[in-house]
Amino acid sequence: MKQILFTLLLFCVAGLYSCRKSTNDLNIKQFDDQQIQAYISANGLTGMQRDPSGGDTTGIYYKILSQGTGKVVDYPDMVSLVFTVRSFDGQFIAADTIVNHVYNFLGHINRNNLPSGVELAIINLLKNKGTRARVLVPSHLAYGSTGFGTGSSDGNNRIKGNQCLDYYIDLVDDQAKYDDLSVKNYIAANNLTGYTKTASGLWYKVLQTGAGAAIGANAVVTVQYTSYLFNGFMTSDQVNTTDGTIIDLGNDTRAGLIEGLQLTTPGAKLSLIMPSRMVYGTNAYGDQTIPINSCLRYDMNVISVQ
Predict the structure, then answer these.
(1) What angle do CA 161, 167, 169 make, to 5 degrees?
(2) Could you tell me the sign of the dihedral formed by the alpha carbons of 275, 276, 277, 278, in that order?
(3) How far apart are the first and last CA of the chain?
């Protein structure tokens, strides 16, 4: 009996010894660094630097694409971000900068499903509002061994475990200037012509002239309209029924609609392109089908005016 117990104990010790990590085994930080170095090499990336913050412990690599001159941000500050991200294996890509907006306290951006590595990169590397950078986030500062999202990663809606992430981060300084540039880029990309820009930043085009007196600032207007994000997505904020919907210009909060409708007459059709500050601003709308800081295009039919 003693011989059997001794034999079993010997097998257990041998098994534990064989499972013990050698000095050549990698920890997760070393593993991530190897993955990042291989990614930089495979994609021919140049100018990437390792984050020296905290004694070179984060493992983040980065490249400043344009240095901002705005306020140096801290965790209590409200920040506006626009970003794209892809996993190193290329099976997860979120490159729609119309959707990927964040407006929150820097210390709370993880509530927008951004990993801690992004927060650290903004504090340690981007620093100033207005800075744009490319940031390679190691998996231990991303979503770790569990990954992120639901479903199959092949469906481009899940990040696998232990995946490092490639971010482009734009730390917006002046939202109004950013929006105005976005509007100009949208007009150019879609070959739109005939639009006029007002002093407020609204762009409008009368598609069909109406009749009668101009619409007043306190008018109650019945309209049909369709609204679009700049990625072409038709939003939940639209009314195309025969009866239309009523907009009370004296009480509506969408400054772009108020101004735009006063530029025309009953029976007109018009198209409005508005910076985010003239629509919903820092508020999401329609169960977030319209993200915060979204510029919008409205195509409108003015049915009647009271």
Answers:
(1) 145
(2) positive
(3) 101
Tokens representing 269?
């059709």
Instruction: Map tokens 């108020």 to a residue.
Output: 258
Average pLDDT over residues 269-289: 91
Alpha helices in 128-221 (DSSP H): 175-189
Q: CA-to-CA distance for 278 and 297, rounded, in angstroms?
A: 11
Percent of the chain with pLDDT over 90: 78
Half-sphere exposure of 245 (CA within 13 A, CB side): 12
Q: How far is CA 233 from CA 7, 98, 238, 280, in A?
A: 69, 10, 12, 16
CA distance 251 to 41: 57
pLDDT tens-place string over residues 19-55: 333 334 679 999 999 999 999 999 999 999 999 987 7
Residue 66: helix, strand or coil by DSSP?
Answer: strand
Query: Residue 112, Cβ neighbours under 10 Å: how many?
Result: 15
CA distance linking residue 69 with residue 235, whole number of Å:
35
